[in-house]
Design goal:
The chain is of the alpha/beta class. The protein is built from 15 helices and 15 strands. The strands form three sheets. The chain has a seven-stranded mixed β-sheet, with helices on both faces. A four-stranded mixed β-sheet has the order 1-2-3-13. α3 runs antiparallel to α13, α4 runs parallel beside α13 and α8 runs parallel beside α9. The structure holds pyridoxal-5'-phosphate (PLP). One of its GO terms (cellular component) is cytosol.
Length: about 425
């Protein structure tokens, strides 16, 4: 029966008696039905970047409701999705000048993967269809997104339904075993992509997808910038599209608007979700470069037949456009400051015997727990160390994001802190 509860709680119905009922939320606080305040140090699932109960959204919503809430973007357009696309692509690096909207991170990534295949087909390479992912990554729950994902525990039950796409090791300096300087190690790690492309045959590879800074599977892990320079070189050499999955990192989470800016690399497709609406509506997007957009410009319907009923609906687009305007340079600077402050306040943990690695990228912190700091040996997964630490933090009124034993005994337990960028200095 326990297993059933695990499944059913996500369907609602209050089946899990352990779950706290949250009646309301404001700024970085969740308020339970019995009045207890919990600090939301994970911003939901790294979503609520601007905090809960944002002022002023009511007017945007009611104005849009008065105008038009829904249109099928297969046949119509509207000022709200146009404005959102403009705002997003203006902020995006390089020539990521077109936006394709969806409703979740998984859908945005599915869009990116299908776009990659369709792009190559249009350009006379119909056998290029595989998407190379990395182990210990997460790109979404739907079958294509899960196929590219390398989180073995989330994949396990569905293996027979997944595409047999190749994976390379993650960008995970703490556990790399390459020789040399951090830069040389980064180049060696990126070289795994070239090896896999050659093994599989470049004529089969459509794209490589990576979280520029890793999210839930290895929170805040990120390589020396040489890694992405090498990825870019390899992708260009073998005519492979580079997809940056910024569902979690996009919009200020790791410091700049987009995490790729940390590495000075421009992907061919960049996906955003979570922080795009900051949790105020389900919406996501795949931003594509000029070359891809132009490939489809002549006859979009024929060459990229894809979309979702609610893609870019005006109500969600208006909400996201309002939220997006709030990601100002000042706001991003505040996020960076709060991230640095949090790191400083947790500094004593760096030497804790259980903490193997303590990573930060902007306002995302990852703590990795190990049984032995020397050997980096993980804890026995049955001990559920991260979950137990999560529970202790909850007892003290702090919500964090745990990951336990998901990585085939390679890594193991970690905790992510990803508070709203606007979290109060004293929280
Ligand atoms: N990509 C990354 C990096 C994510 O962190 C997530 C969700 O956690 C997804 C994709 C999937 O997004 P969604 O749950 O909105 O489908």
């Amino acid at each position: 029966m326990e297993d059933q509860n695990d499944v059913f709680y996500k369907w609602g119905g209050g089946i899990d008696p352990e779950f706290l009922a949250i009646d309301r939320a404001y700024d970085e606080f969740l308020v339970t039905d019995d009045g207890r305040e919990i600090v939301d140090a994970a911003a939901g699932a790294a979503v609520v970047n601007l905090g809960h109960s944002l002022d002023g959204l009511e007017d945007t919503i009611s104005d849009q409701l008065e105008d038009v809430a829904y249109l099928s973007l297969s046949h119509f357009t509207n000022e709200a999705p146009e404005r959102l696309a403009d705002e997003l692509t203006t902020r995006a690096p390089g020539d990521l000048n077109a936006a394709f909207f969806a409703n979740s991170g998984s859908e945005a990534n599915e869009t990116a993967f299908k776009l990659a295949r369709a792009y190559h087909r249009e350009r006379g390479s119909p056998t290029k269809h595989q998407v190379v992912g990395r182990w210990q990554s997460y790109h979404g729950a739907t079958l294509g997104a899960l196929s590219a994902s390398g989180n073995t525990s989330r994949r396990a039950a569905y293996e027979p339904q997944l595409q047999n796409w190749p994976h390379i090791p993650p960008a995970y300096p703490y556990r790399w075993q390459y020789d040399g300087t951090p830069e040389q190690q980064a180049v060696a790690a990126a070289g795994e992509l070239e090896t896999v492309i050659k093994q599989e045959g470049p004529e089969t590879i459509a794209a490589f997808v990576a979280e520029p800074v890793s999210g839930s599977s290895i929170p805040a892990a990120h390589p020396h910038p040489a890694y992405y320079a090498e990825v870019r070189r390899i992708c260009d050499e073998y005519d492979v599209l580079f997809i940056a999955d910024e569902i979690m990192t996009g919009l200020g989470r790791t410091g700049p608007q987009f995490a790729v800016e940390r590495f000075d690399v421009v992907p061919d497709i960049l996906t955003v979700g979570k922080g795009l609406s900051g949790g105020y509506t389900p919406i996501s997007a795949a931003l594509v470069c000029d070359d891809i957009a132009e490939t489809f410009a002549a006859d979009r319907e024929r060459s990229f037949d894809h979309g979702h009923t609610f893609s870019g609906n005006p109500l969600s687009a208006a909400i996201a456009a309002d939220v997006l305007e709030r990601y100002t340079d000042d706001l991003l600077a505040t996020g960076r400051e709060r991230g640095a402050q949090l790191e400083a306040e947790l500094e004593t943990l760096r030497d804790h015997p259980m903490v193997g690695d303590f990573r930060r990228a902007g306002a995302m912190i990852g703590l990795e727990f190990v049984a032995d700091r020397e050997t980096k040996a993980p804890f026995d997964p049955d001990l559920n160390v991260a979950t137990r630490i999560y529970e202790h933090a909850m007892d003290r009124g702090v919500y964090t994001y745990p990951g336990s034993g998901s990585i085939d005994g390679v890594a193991g337990d970690h905790l992510m802190l990803a508070p709203p960028l606007t979290i109060g200095e004293d929280a």
